Amino acid sequence: MKLRFNGTQGFILAVLIHLLVIGLLLFNYDFEKSVKPQPSDAEPKVMEAVVIDQSKIKAEVQKLKEAEKKKQAEEEKRKQEAIETEKKRKEEEKKLEELKQKQKELEQKRKQEEENLKKVEQERVRQEQEKQKLEQERLLLEEQKRKEAEQQAKLEAEKLKQEEEARKKAEEQRLKEAEEKRLAEEERLKKEAEAEKKRQQEEAQKKAEEEKKRKEEEARKKAEAEEKRKAEEAQKRLEAEMAAEEAARAKEIASSFYGKIAAQVERNFNTSGLEPGLQCVLEIKMVPGGDVVSVKVIESSGDARFDRQAEIAAQKASPLPVPDDIKIFNQYLRTVRFRFNPG
Amino acid sequence: MKKLFFISLTFFSLFLIRSAMAEEIMTIEITKGVEHAIPIAIVPFESSGDLPEDVTRIITEDLESSGYFKTMPVTDMPAQPHDFPSIMFDDWKRMGMDNLVVGKATKTAAGAYAIEFRLADVYKSSQLTGLRVMAKGNNLRFVAHQIADVIYEELIGEPGAFATRITYITVKKIGNKKRYQLEMADADGYNPVILLESSQPILSPVWSPNGRQVAYVSFEKGNSAIYVQTISTGHRKSVSSGRGINSSPAWSPDGSKLAMTLSKDGNPEIYIKNLRTNQLTRITNNRAIDTEACFSPDGGTLVFTSDRGGSPQIYQVPVSGGTAQRLTFSAGKYNAGASFSPDGKMLTMVHRGNAGYQIAVMDMGSHQLDILTNGRLDEAPSFAPNGKMIIYSTVSGGRSELAAVSVDGKIHKRLAVRGSEVREPAWGPFIK
Question: Torsions phi, psi of B112, nearest 5?
């Protein structure tokens, strides 16, 4: 916003600004925030008015009074603001003054520093000359040192060369010895290999001989066993034949007793009153001597009386005729069966 | 485990082979036997108090008379036990005794007797049968016969016929008059009772199938007449008394009819009379004599005697009538008075051979005739109800008496019946 200034208004404004600045200073008021647009005409305007009625007038009066009051308040405010503006301006001036002073001090300080720099430059040049002199001295010294070093190096090299030769000589000696050793070793190994080979050959030969011997022994044993087996077989065959003959003889003897037994049982088998056409099978057990010790019907005729008469016959016929030979008795007669079939 | 199993298997097989070798079970054929009477020892029964009858003796005689048994004399017995536990079986075995009967009779408070007996199998040391029977004094004989029947049936396999009865005719001479009696007795001839007495001839008594009645021919009215008499009451009834001959009554197996010989039409012919309806059916019609009819056990046919072939021979005819077939062919000889065995497989008849009249049996299948007796005048054969024996009359020492023969002709016995003349025996049925 731009403020327009003229005669009294400018003055009043100045007053107000001063007041404002003072106020702001007094009340530590925020200046920027209090700024408000102001009307250009500060004078109250008198209105041309007609009274319509008393109450309206009163209201109007009241209204006017209030407007007046407001105007006064605003005026007051404007004065205050002017005071404050003035105060601010003074402060600005003071600040400017202070700045000028400071610049002056700075200038002075700069001049002082330029002086200082000039002095430093002079010192530097002097030091540079000193330095060059020292450098020359150092180079001289170094040259001398280098020459000494060279001398030393030469001596060293000579020494190294001698050492190298000695080392080479030693190495050659060592190699020579190693070669000799290797050859000796080879010779030894060769000899050993030959010995081993010979040993193996001997061993193989020995083994072959043993194997041959073993095989011969085996064959001999086998032949013997075969012979023995054949002899045994022949013996067995003979025994079997004898046993078969013996068995046949035993059976023949046994058979001769079966007929006698049958006749004796038949003499005791009472068929009186029995139905014809029946048959049954009994199994009897005897003890040596022919005594019947057990009679069992193993196949019934279906007729209890027939079975019973058969059982009685077997019991009554006891003792039955049996051979004295216990072996024949055991094999063929200890247990026999009777089939009763009288027709 | 497997190995063990294998080893035991091997052992087992070895054992099998060994035992097969060791014991060869031979079967010996027994192709014949001997026909001996069955040995039986009937130990005298122990008795408390006096028994009016010798029960042991009755049983022994019954069994002995059948021909199937050989009873051991009391004097040969190694011991006389009376009950099963006291039997020493080995003692009896040593004697070759197969069967043993022990028992006792105890008198009860009521005056009756309790008879207890056991039949033992000596070789098995076991009991075959055992019974306890109550009997009154006057019934002891019959009870003894019943015990004999039990033993017989156990050992022979068929019912005994000891406890059965017979009828027969006796003739007594008193001065110069004759006394005819129809009598009934036990099968052994003991305990006779008179059923009918007459001064005129009585002929041909026959038992009704149920054993309660007897049919016979009586001349008491001067002419022949057929009567049926109830045994228990003595009540009798004339069933045929027509003109001419009324003879040879024969019961049908169901007892409802009587076959008979009548000459009312001029010539003796066979008729069947229905006893309920009195209806008479003529079966034969021939100029020759047809008589002595007998029903087959199945009731389907009749056998009878006829001389239509020139000599008396046996013929068979259906009960419905028709053509008669001749069964006997002994040319010029004599076969008469035939009757059937209880099973219908045999006929018994009077056969006249060179030596006289004898009892013969004929097999109905083969028509083979076997002569069983050797008397001069053997007549009136009648089968026992078990078919094993035939009772008949025979003349010995000028007197007629009763005898019995087994159907195989091996067993012969005489019956002890008092009287000068005993004839026309008839064996009654089983008493139920």
Answer: -90, 180
Same domain membership, residue B313 and residue B244: yes
B104 touches B83 (CB < 8 A) = yes
Note which residues in 90-149 of chain A have CB less than 8 A from chain B. Answer: none
Half-sphere exposure of B405 (CA within 13 A, CB side): 24
Angle, CA A253 vertex, CA A248 and CA A259 arms, to 5°: 125
CB within 8 Å: B32 and A258: no
CATH number for the domain that contains residue A281: 3.30.1150.10
Place of tokens 């102001």: A38
The CA–CA distances, whole Å, from B225 to A219, B202, B221, B237, B424 equal: 121, 10, 8, 10, 17
The residue among B119, B64, B57, B110 whose CA lies nearest residue B87 is B119
In the predicted model, residues of chain B with pLDDT beneath 50 are: 1-3, 6, 9-20
CA distance A212 to A207: 8
Beta strand extents in B94-222 (DSSP E only): 99-107, 113-121, 126-135, 165-174, 177-186, 193-198, 202-207, 213-218
Strand residues in B5-85 grouped as ranges (E): 26-30, 38-42, 46-48, 69-71
Q: How far apart, in whole angstroms, are the C-alpha atoms of residue B127 and residue A78?
A: 166
- How many Å is the Cα radius of gyration of chain B? 28
Range of the domain at B176: 165-427
Strand segments (E) across B287-355: 290-295, 301-306, 313-318, 325-326, 334-340, 346-353
Q: Are residues B71 and B104 in the same domain?
A: yes
Strand partners, B185: B166
For B66-105, b/e burial (b = at least 16 CB within 10 A) is bbbbebbeeeebeeebbeeeebebeebbebebbbbbbbbb
Domain of residue A281 covers 269-340
Alpha-carbon gap: A234 to the closest alpha carbon of chain B (Å): 22
The reply to whether residue A343 touches residue B37, judged by beta carbons under 8 angstroms, is: no
Q: What is the pTM of this model?
A: 0.65
* In the predicted structure, residue A294 carries a pLDDT above the cut 90: yes
Q: Are residues B232 and B335 in the same domain?
A: yes
User: Quick one: B260 and B114 in the same domain?
Assistant: no
State pLDDT tens for residues B235-275.
999 999 999 999 999 999 999 999 999 999 889 999 999 99
Give the count of domains, chain B: 2
Instruction: Please tell me the distance in Å from B124's CA to the nearest CA on chain A.
Output: 9
Cβ–Cβ gap B156/A275 under 8 Å: no
Tokens (6 digits) for A19 = 């007041």
Residue A153 counted as domain residue: no
Rounded CA-CA distance B390/B340 in Å is 11
- List pLDDT tens digits, range B329-382: 865 589 999 999 999 999 999 999 878 999 999 999 999 999 999 989 999 999
Is A272 close to B68, i.e. CB distance below 8 A? Answer: yes
DSSP track, B222-240:
SS-EEEEEETTT--EEEEE
**How many C-beta atoms lie closer than 10 Å to residue B401's C-beta?**
22
The pair of structure tokens assigned to A135 is 């450098």
> In this structure, are B218 and B350 located in the same domain?
yes
